[in-house]
Amino acid sequence: MRTSLRDAVAMSAAVLAPFLMGLALVPLRTSLSHTNLALLLVVVVVAVSALGNRFAGALAALSAVAWFDFFHTEPYQSFHIQDRADAETAVLLLFVGLAVSQLSARARVLRRAAVSDAQHLERLHAVSRLVRSGRCSADELVERIREDLIEVLDLRGCRFVRGSGPVDGPPPRLEPDGSLRVEGWIWDLDRQGWPDGETELWAVAHGRCHGVFVMTPVPGVAPASPEARLVAVDLAGLAALALSGQKDLAQP
User: Fold this and answer.
1) What is the C-alpha to C-alpha distance for residues 209 and 204, in angstroms, rounded to an integer?
2) What is the CA radius of gyration of the chain?
3) Residue 151 and residue 232: Cα distance in Å, rounded?
4) Does the structure show a pLDDT above 50 at 145?
5) Calpha distance 165→174 (Å, rounded)
6) pLDDT score of 114
7) 7, 87, 89, 201, 237 from 94: Cα distances, Å
8) How far apart are CA 176 and CA 204, in angstroms?
9) What is the pLDDT of residues 31-59, one digit of tens each?
10) pLDDT exceeds 80 at position 5
């Protein structure tokens, strides 16, 4: 599994940020209640969770509890709590920090999904406009869709072969519903990932296959979302329409 630079920075911040906040609040520990000090540390947990992933958020919550104990409970500069109320505050800080970190990470995932869906929709609209306008040849449109498929499905490569598949034997094939068909196997694409080798995506229009996009996934990379796979199927359908001479997708 590849770790992004952003997630790596978030993991570092999960350890350092609560420490720095706890240290900065030391002059205020006699004037602020322990509850307020804990809430300020929760703010740091939220910030780390928004920057990174749920693991960074959980680590930040644990770090916040540790430095709250070290800097703001007696005996100071010790990972030991004498007062029962302080112990309860530390436990609540842990639970609140964990809960908030998971919610923040989930919000980040949903935000990414919304942005990705908007980008996929724009791709479909752009290709649809090209098909309607007739400003480019079928070959040019197929090349544009081939490049789009590489980005939408995060592929290592993709080539287009005219004619009705299969190209060589019965390789895995992406179905119109976004599932993967593998001869002789029940294949769960979301859990098992892409199979080894090439995968076909047929360009079908009016019940006829006009060509095959032969896709090469990147080994070890998680498959694209079901929504992205459906976009890929629609893009292949637009290629088939162009190849069949159908310029108008629908009449207004």
Assistant:
1) 4
2) 26
3) 10
4) yes
5) 12
6) 65
7) 21, 11, 9, 48, 51
8) 9
9) 888 888 888 888 888 888 777 777 888 88
10) no
Cβ partners under 8 Å of residue 208, min gap 6: 164, 240, 244
For 109-134, how does the pLDDT look when each residue is reduced to its tens digit (9 = 90+)? 666 666 666 777 777 778 888 777 77
Going from N- to C-terminal start, the domains of the chain cover 5-110, 134-243
Mapping DSSP to helix (H, G, I), strand (E, B) and coil, where does residue 93 land?
Answer: helix
Ordered strands of the 180-181 beta sheet = 155-162, 208-217, 199-205, 173-174, 180-181
> Torsion angle, CA of 121/113/229/54, rounded to 10 degrees?
170
Q: CA-CA distance, 206 to 210, in Å (whole number)?
A: 10
Per the rule left: phi > 0, alpha: psi between -120 and 50, beta: everything else, 23 is: alpha
Quick: pLDDT tens for 53-107: 778 888 888 998 999 888 888 888 888 887 888 788 888 888 887 887 777 767 7
Q: Could you read off the pLDDT of 131-144 as tens digits, one per residue?
A: 777 777 888 889 99
CATH code: domain 134-243 is 3.30.450
What letter would DSSP give residue 158?
E
Question: What's at 10, amino acid-wise?
Answer: A
| Closest residue by Cα to residue 52 from 19, 116, 4 | 4
Of 189, 196, 235, 232, nearest to 217 by C-alpha is 196
